[in-house]
Design a protein that fits this description.
Layout: H1 2-19, E1 44-46, H2 49-65, H3 67-76, E2 79-82, E3 87-89, E4 96-99, H4 101-105, H5 108-127, H6 138-142, H7 144-160, H8 165-172, H9 189-194
Helix pairs in contact: 1-2, 2-3, 2-5, 3-5, 5-7, 7-8
The structure holds calcium ion.
C-alpha cells in the first residue's frame, strides 16, 4: 500500500508542477530530481481495478528492491491477467501470466515473488530447444527441475524483500514437486485443475 501511494504521490507531484503554468514548460531535463518519472511496466495488467492496483504495488516493490527480478518479468511476460488458477501460459502470444485470487490476496511480498517465479518459467520456455512441433518439451520449462529453478529465484526475491522467516523456510523446503497436486509423480492437466492457488 505504501509503495502505491508513493507512485501516486510522485505522479501527483509531477502533475501539480505542470498545473500552475498556462503553457506547460515541463521537460524531463527540468524535472525536479525529487519527482522521479513514473514509467509504466512494459506488460499489460488485465483485471478489475483492485487486481491491477495490487499487481502494480507488487511491481513497485520489485522495482525498489529486486530490479533484476522485475527485468525478468518485463523481458518475458506480455500480460498479467486475473485468471483461475495461477500459472504461466508461456506458449501464448504474448506470454501471459495467470494470477488467481488466493495469490492476489496473499502478502504483497509473496505476490511480488510469484511474479518473478512465473516469469522464470517463461524465460525457460523462451530459451529451451524446440521439438519438431515447434514447442519446447514441457519438462524444460514446467517440470520438476524447472520448478526448482523458479523456486530458487523466488527465494532470492524473498530474501531481497526481507520476507518473514516463515516464507523463507517454506520456500527453502520446496523440492520442485508442488505442482504435482495429486502426488502421482506426473505433472499434467489434472494437477492444473486441482490447483488451489
Ligand atoms: Ca500429478
Amino acid at each position: 500500500m505504501r509503495g502505491d501511494r508513493s507512485v501516486r504521490g510522485a505522479m501527483a507531484a509531477v502533475l501539480a508542477g505542470c498545473a500552475g503554468f498556462g503553457a506547460c514548460a515541463h521537460t524531463p531535463e527540468r524535472r525536479s530530481p525529487h519527482a522521479p518519472a513514473y514509467t509504466p511496466p512494459p506488460f499489460a495488467i488485465r483485471g478489475d481495478e483492485s487486481f491491477r492496483a495490487r499487481v502494480r504495488q507488487a511491481v513497485f516493490m520489485l522495482e525498489l528492491t529486486d530490479p533484476e527480478g522485475l527485468k525478468i518479468v518485463a523481458d518475458h511476460v506480455g500480460v498479467i491477467a486475473n485468471h483461475t488458477p495461477s500459472g504461466m501460459a508461456a506458449y501464448e502470444t504474448p506470454p501471459t501470466m495467470h494470477l488467481a485470487q488466493p495469490t492476489i490476496d496473499h502478502s504483497l511480498v509473496w505476490l511480488a515473488s510469484v511474479l518473478v517465479h512465473e516469469a522464470v518459467h517463461s524465460r525457460l520456455y523462451a530459451g529451451a530447444p524446440r521439438q519438431p512441433n515447434g514447442e519446447p518439451a514441457y519438462d524444460a520449462w514446467g517440470g520438476f527441475e524447472a520448478e526448482r529453478m523458479c523456486n530458487a529465484r523466488q527465494l532470492e526475491t524473498c530474501v531481497r524483500l526481507a520476507a518473514p522467516d516463515s516464507v523463507l523456510n517454506h520456500l527453502a523446503a520446496q523440492d520442485g514437486t508442488h505442482g504435482d497436486v495429486n502426488r502421482d509423480g506426473v505433472l499434467d492437466y489434472r494437477d492444473y485443475m486441482l490447483r488451489s492457488w
